[in-house]
Design brief:
The structure holds 2 protein chains of 2 kinds.
Chain A lengths: L2 H4 L7 E2 L5 H15 L18 H7 L4 H11 L9 E5 L5 H12 L3 E5 L6 H12 L19 H29 L10 E6 L10 H9 L1 H5 L4 E7 L16 E5 L4 H9 L5 H16 L5 H16 L11 H19 L10 H12 L21 H15 L5 H4 L8 H9 L3 H14 L3 E3 H16 L4 H5 L9 H17 L3 E6 L6 E5 L3 H11 L12
Parallel strand pairs in A: 2-5, 2-6, 3-4, 4-5
Antiparallel strand pairs in A: 7-9, 8-9
Helix pairs in contact in A: 2-7, 6-7, 11-12, 11-13, 12-13, 15-19, 15-21, 15-22
Chain B lengths: L1 H20 L1 H8 L6 H14 L4 E6 L6 H15 L4 E7 H4 L2 H15 L4 E2 L4 H17 L3 E7 L1 H4 L5 H11 L5 E7 L10 H4 L5 E4 L5 H12 L9 H16 L1 H13 L3 H13 L10 H11 L3 H8 L2 H15 L7 H15 L7 H14 L2 E3 L14 E3 L3 H10 L5 H10 L1
Parallel strand pairs in B: 1-5, 1-6, 2-4, 4-5
Antiparallel strand pairs in B: 7-8
Helix pairs in contact in B: 1-14, 2-4, 2-11, 3-4, 6-7, 7-9, 13-15, 14-15, 16-20, 17-18, 17-19, 17-21, 20-21
The chains are: A alpha/beta, B alpha/beta.
Chain lengths: ~550, ~425
């Protein structure tokens, strides 16, 4: 009946209540020493690095002056309790780095965990407990965690225990410091838990219980020595919860204004005068599109090189006349690169430049252009390319049209194929095109994909055997069974690469449906690399 | 000498911060009258302790109105009064909402309380039998077990096995327990099953947020530092005088009532005080009206308008396009339809901001990240962003206001919005 009866059978899993805190502290310390070769100390909870002064911090983060001061005020002097903070603001506004640098400046222990890397409650709980237990996962302990904990109830118990230990540790330490009177101030008795990327918790499976739990953690722990800081991309009002919570104190990081961005971009420039005149020209138009510093700085890098092109000496201080000259030089590039701002190119700049003229226009390029146009910047096997094209066609064209596009002879009858689509009534086509634009690519069953695949492969192989000679041969003619297994493999790798989406199985037909997600540009590019006349197969383009 | 003065200022700040962070301080001040919930609750629990009977009470009220804190105060007093005849088991619906972990936690706390060995691997049945047995034992030893069930409504989900076995065990003469349920759902007792409800005594205590006058006197109480040996006498007097001055200021009263109109619960008030105290200038060492104003503006935020202020011009264009589509009552809106609208605006007004599709798509994604728009359904994961239906998360009034407040908003956007009315 009583607990004691069953206890002796499983002595290792029982735990005596820790009524006296000093005893548990000493236990903890000894276990840490056993666990890791180089024992971590409470100092490992500090951010580390050279100490920074507040002035340095303020100058390191232009435009964040008031936010830094506000957080410093809210954190308060050493050993003062704090209500939970909710730091929010858009992407790349310096939330995380400011918090971390601030703790480096303040030299106080913090437990940092990002909800992006700790992507489910269990990992989050265990990461926090590991840090608090000064536990480092290593080969010696088999990369195990300090505590195994999945349920929120266990987490709160473990957390309370670990925090009590750590805080007692800190208190002992600061008492020693007080007696020895070292010059540098102690690290205090407070422990701060930082939850970064907190907005991601909303998408977790158990978000409806985890969110209120974390928001109510401060009230639940009832430990004044614990400070909580939530860092989130989205504002507090987007954290809906049907049970409510006492909202933490909001600290808002607005996006940088133009002047701040200027200051930030000017930092670490070799020739600030020149760069500043460059920014005079280019910042304003770009700023109309995006206000995120990371995107702006990547966009400006190639543009600045362009700007400097006419100059022989890049360390020159520009005068008015030169500025004018440079201005007229760069103006063309600014307007064109505005539309390229988010393009990440793996090709050298010059090549992109040459292809830009053709890519500007939305119309599909003619096949004649294909030689000089940029090629695919990734490798793909020929059969995968054909498969991709057939998936694209299957998504694009209505299924009823397949028979007329690819007849039994393998679509070699060009005349018939070309005529059929153009016979359609224009209005109907327009509405279809509209539908395509709205609904997106259609889905198709596997059978249809394979049928189209076989048709286009046989078409492509008919006129010339170039492919085979190059060693990229598919061996279609030879072994059909081989091809099938190969194709299914290719299909799954295309699905994994997200070129083709694999949908849920259709409730009526019972088979899985697929959907191609590539853009027309990419499809044309792929087709061009195979010298495949894709545009003549597309239903809407005649 | 100077150093010492600084010390006092820091100490004052520290004292105020600790007061604000400890809700018990506030509620103790608030509930010292004999008519208060504190006295009622204390009477109820202490009578069941002294008379050795069973009892169940619900504490209901909005979040941050001090249900837990008052209960904690009562429990602390009772533990002082009857140290050997009370043991407290604390559960929270957030943590122990499922029956298995609830029983486990009860067993754990009972073991801890009575210096028994707790077995982690004990089964659900073991734990529930253990609880019933322990209740009996405690009853025989004239020890009252107080069960505090925070977030009571969450215990009422599912089969309510915990509540049933707890209340059922209390029906027997030998046991001696008090169940205190805490919930912010006023209909918490309606959630109970019939078999549970019939075993529950329907005592309810309602916690209401304090009136404006009470809040104000609470504020003064919180901010007044003791005039005794802990602070230099003249400093403390000056400090308290300044606080009094601030409270009597007309502008402060306005800010304060604005703030409390929004939410008058004590926790909300404490948040405000915390912000104000944090901004206290340590050079002067006194609170100022400015501190409270800063606190007010930093807590009362308008996230949607802030988001709008952060948007780039192109993002504003997209928002206006979407709003136009909404007004036209297009049932279905995705990136492509927005782009069509965007193009038509460009065609008819020849705006200078006409960008490539890719650029717009990225701006569109920014808007999704800012949560000014969101996907209308969760189904279309197999579609790429351009095709997924989206909806606006901002009203036209907000958009209008945001556009007007925007620093360099193109005139055409405002015109377009005005036309839509």
């Amino acid at each position: 009946m009583d607990k004691e009866e069953e206890a002796p059978q499983i002595p290792r899993r029982t735990r005596r209540s820790s009524t006296s805190s000093w005893a548990s502290t000493s236990n903890d310390v000894s276990s840490v020493k056993v666990n890791s070769l180089e024992p971590q100390t409470i100092n490992d909870l500090l951010v580390g690095g050279e100490p920074v002064s507040l002035d340095d911090l303020l100058s390191n983060f232009p435009g964040r002056n008031s936010q830094i001061r506000e957080i410093v005020h809210l954190l308060g002097p050493l050993n003062t309790p704090m209500l939970p903070l909710f730091v929010y603001g858009g992407a790349s506004t310096g939330k995380t780095s400011i918090i971390l640098q601030l703790f480096r400046h303040l030299n106080r222990p913090l437990v940092y965990s990002s909800c992006r890397t700790c992507y489910n409650p269990r990992i989050l709980f265990e990461s926090i407990l590991n840090q608090l237990h000064l536990h480092r996962r290593s080969a010696a302990n088999g990369y195990s965690n300090a505590k195994r904990c999945e349920r929120p109830s266990d987490f709160v118990n473990f957390l309370r225990e670990a925090l009590t230990n750590a805080i007692n540790n800190l208190k002992e330490k600061s008492e020693k410091l007080m007696s020895s009177k070292t010059m540098r101030g102690g690290i205090g008795n407070m422990i701060y838990l930082v939850f970064d990327n907190f907005q991601l918790v909303r998408e977790w499976d158990k978000s409806s219980t985890i969110l209120p739990l974390l928001f109510n953690l401060y009230d639940m722990l009832k430990m004044p020595e614990v400070g909580l800081i939530f860092i989130s991309n989205s504002s507090p009002d987007t954290f809906y919860s049907n049970m409510g919570y006492v909202e933490p104190i909001p600290v808002y990081f607005p996006d940088y204004v133009e002047a701040d961005i200027r200051k930030i971009l000017l930092r670490n420039q070799a020739n600030p005068k020149l760069y500043s005149s460059f920014l005079d020209v280019s910042l304003r138009p770009f700023f109309r599109i995006t206000r995120q510093i990371n995107e702006l700085s990547t966009a400006f890098k190639p543009l600045y090189e362009k700007y400097c092109e006419p100059l022989s000496d890049k360390s020159i201080v520009p005068n008015e006349d030169m500025k004018r000259r440079l201005f007229s030089h760069i103006m063309l590039h600014v307007s064109s690169s505005l539309n390229e701002i988010f393009k990440v190119s793996s090709l050298p700049l010059s090549k992109v430049e040459s292809s830009k003229e053709t890519t500007q226009k939305g119309t599909p390029r003619k096949l004649e252009h294909c030689e000089e146009v940029a090629k695919l910047d990734f490798h793909m096997s020929t059969s995968a390319k054909y498969l991709l094209i057939s998936a694209f066609l299957a998504s694009r064209n209505p299924a009823t049209l397949d028979a007329s596009l690819f007849d039994s002879k393998g679509g070699s009858d060009n005349r018939k194929r070309k005529r059929k689509p153009s016979e359609k009534v224009p209005e109907k086509k327009e509405s279809l095109e509209e539908e395509l634009l709205m609904k997106g690519p259609g889905s198709f069953p596997l059978e249809r994909l394979l049928a189209i695949f076989q048709c286009i492969v046989s078409v492509a192989d008919d006129p010339s055997d170039e492919e085979e000679q190059n060693g990229f041969g598919l061996g279609v003619e030879g072994a059909c069974g081989d091809l099938m297994s190969d194709v299914l493999l290719q299909l799954s790798s295309l699905c994994n690469a997200k070129f083709i989406f694999k949908g849920r199985s259709c409730p009526i037909e019972g088979s899985t449906r697929y959907r191609s997600s590539i853009s027309e540009d990419l499809a044309l590019k792929v087709a061009r690399s195979l010298k495949f006349p894709l545009s003549s197969y597309l239903y809407k383009r005649t | 000498m100077e150093m010492k003065r600084e010390n006092h200022k820091g100490k004052a700040l520290n004292l105020l911060r600790s007061r604000v962070c400890d809700p018990k301080f506030a509620f103790k001040a608030l509930y010292n009258s004999p008519e208060s919930n504190y006295s009622k609750l204390k009477f109820m629990i202490s009578s069941s302790v002294t008379e050795a009977c069973n009892n169940s009470i619900l504490l209901l009220g909005p979040r941050g109105s001090g249900k837990i804190s008052v209960l904690e105060l009562v429990i602390r007093d009772l533990l002082d009064e009857y140290p050997d005849s009370i043991s407290v088991i604390r559960l929270s619906g957030l943590l122990h909402g499922d029956d298995i972990s609830a029983f486990k936690e009860i067993a754990r706390q009972l073991c801890m309380e009575h210096q028994l060995l707790f077995s982690k691997s004990a089964s659900f049945d073991d734990n529930s039998q253990f609880m019933v047995a322990m209740l009996k034992e405690c009853g025989l030893a004239h020890k009252t077990v107080i069960f505090v069930l925070d977030e009571f409504d969450l215990f009422a989900q599912g089969k309510q096995r915990l509540l049933y076995s707890l209340l059922d065990a209390m029906q027997s003469v030998t046991s001696q327990a008090v169940v205190v349920g805490i919930s912010c759902r006023l209909d918490a007792d309606q959630l109970l099953e019939k078999r549970v409800r019939s075993r529950f005594s329907h005592r309810k205590l309602l916690f209401m947020p304090p009136s404006m006058e009470d809040s104000q006197s609470l504020l003064v109480h919180m901010l007044t530092i003791p005039v005794d040996s802990s602070f230099p006498r003249d400093y403390a007097i000056e400090f308290n005088r300044k606080v009094q001055n601030i409270v009597e200021d007309k502008r402060f009263k306005e800010t304060f009532s604005n703030y409390l109109n929004f939410d008058s619960s004590v926790k909300h008030l404490l948040k405000f005080l915390f912000c104000a105290i944090s901004h206290m200038d340590l050079k002067t060492g006194f609170l100022s009206l400015e501190n409270f104003k800063t606190a007010f503006s930093s807590i009362n935020r308008q996230p949607k308008l802030e988001c709008l202020r952060n948007s780039s011009i192109l993002e504003l264009y997209i928002l206006v396009c979407m709003k136009r589509l909404e007004v036209k009552e297009k049932s279905f809106c995705n990136f492509n339809s927005v782009m069509k609208e965007y193009k038509s605006i460009h065609d008819s007004f020849q705006t200078s901001d006409y960008y490539d599709r890719n650029v717009c798509l990225r701006a569109f994604e920014h808007l999704i990240n800012r949560e000014l728009i969101c996907f209308a359904d969760n189904r279309g994961h197999s579609l790429s962003v351009e095709y997924r239906p989206v909806k606006l998360l901002i009203s036209s009034a907000e958009l209008n206001q945001g556009l007007r407040a925007y620093h360099s908003c193109p005139a055409i956007l405002q015109k377009l919005m005005d036309r839509e009315g």
